[in-house]
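Hi support team,

I submitted a single chain yesterday and got back a structure, but I'm not sure I'm reading the token output correctly. Could someone confirm the output below corresponds to the sequence I sent? I've pasted both exactly as they appear in my results page.

Thanks,
R.
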Amino acid sequence: MKYVTKAVHASKTYLEDMHSEAIAMTSAYDFASAEEAAQRFSGAQAGNVYSRFTNPGVELFEHRLAALEGTEAALGVASGMGAYLLLGLTFLRQGDHVLLASGIFGTTTHLFKNIFGQFGITTTTIAASDLDAWSDHMTPTTRMVIVETPTNPLMEIANLRQLADIARINNALLVVDNTLLTPVFQRPVEFGADIVLHSAGKFLDGQGRCVAGALAGSQEHIDRLRLCLRTTGVNMSPFNAWVLSKGLETLKARMLLHERNSQEIYQWLKNHPAVEQVISTFDKDHPNASLITSQQKGHCPIISFRLNTDQTGTLAFIDRLGLIKRCTNIGDAQTMITHPATTTHCRYPAEERERFGISNNLLRICIGLEEPEDVIEDLAQAMPPSHPQSTLRVG
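Hi R., thanks for writing in. Yes, this is the structure output for that exact sequence:
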């Protein structure tokens, strides 16, 4: 055997005693025989066929997420938007109708209203907390109800149990985007949700290292979604699956620290004279305070607030920040801030942004894992000149 051939076919390293799981970086798999290949491809025999179909590293992430969400199964996807795309391709047909929470991520609304709209699917947006509106807009062709709770960035709360009842009576699927709370602070299936969705590169990862999505639900629903994934190719990469699997190991510890830091920063913002309004589920006067207590096990580390200034002053405040990152992501170890009206929700027409509460002086901050005193110091020095660095303390 020539030396190049020897190098190509050198024995594989034994990995089964590794403490940390190996990254399953492979596109395809070897078969013991032609018959085994045929059996695998036909589905008569379980096993790997091709990494677009199955991958051991992706399966590990799926098993861990299903365990955390309390579902029968889960599915790793290339991105959060890929997860929404897969939902539509799997469960919607021409003539179907979708109810979608208003103010949800602008690209999600664009996907359902404009992209799916080209194929005869209609979408109605409803305020997440308006149960009467959800019920009133249900039609005989409504096949899917999609809600994010809390909503991002205005922290509206949807009553999942009652929404599940409304959807079930009308034979519609209830899909809950659980990205902001994660299964640590909310498990939607306990309240009747059919499918749970994650933009997995947020809190599930925790360090902003990858783009990924996930869906969790019954084995029946996940099997249908997986069949569509095999054809469309919106599969999760093995490397991202490994990153996410390791992220899930520290998820609870991170979420508890995010929450503790957020509560301290929320209190500081509430007391600052330059801040017109603070929007957070920590607020005891939140319109859905009792529902938050009964439905959530903790609080989202996203805080939205309005400054006593116009858009120019608001953007200038962002530019004066030093420690806090100007970044539209969430769920990172680093604290990040964004201006929703000109970034995440810029796809909405101005009148819709106004109706949804995405005002020009609204800011969204996602609290990271730094010491909260350092984040507060940075916020204080960036406040508008009419409100110099505050000496206010928490409490």
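A quick pointer for reading it: The two ends are 76 Å apart (CA to CA). Let us know if anything else looks off.

Best,
Support desk
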